[in-house]
TrEMBL record:
InterPro entries: SecD/SecF_arch_bac (IPR022813), SecD_1st (IPR048631). Keywords: Cell membrane, Membrane, Protein transport, Translocation, Transmembrane, Transmembrane helix, Transport. Residues 131-144 have a biased composition (Low complexity). The keyword NAD does not apply. Residues 129-159 are annotated as: Disordered. It comes from the Bacteria. Pfam families: SecD_1st (PF21760). GO terms for cellular component: plasma membrane. This is Protein translocase subunit SecD. One of its GO terms (biological process) is protein transport. Residues 66-121 form the Protein translocase subunit SecDF P1 domain.
Amino acid sequence: MAPPTSSQIKPGRTLLLLLAIIAAMGAAVVLQNAYIPKFGLDLAGGTTVTLSPETLDNKAPSQESLDRAVNIIRDRVNGQGISDAQVARASDNILIQIPGAGQEEALKLVATTAELRFRQVLAVAPAQEQPAALPSDAASPAPSGTLPAVTPSAAASPA
């Protein structure tokens, strides 16, 4: 058997290099605190709310209206930035699960009725034409292609 030369692969060194890379990756994970799992609703605790819909004529609401309500509530909860919140239909009820403590403002937002408000625009001014070119200084004459300045009339002022 021939003595090993420098060009032959040595499995011991390759294995040692691989273990060093794995140890460095593990140390990076530990130093970043990324190994701490985030607990879900079942382990961390949280709030569970069941909403029962009521209609004016005491009939069961349609599936379409329940789906629309679930989507609206889901948008409200997700708009608060709460992670892992679940909003789902459970037969004729809506089940809301919010993990973590201190989520009272999210529940208040879900419980309130949405309002759509309209407001009147007080005044609308007519569009004004801008001159084609502005003079470089006030003493120089205006170019021949510019339009005269337009001032708003008294009819455009708010009543």
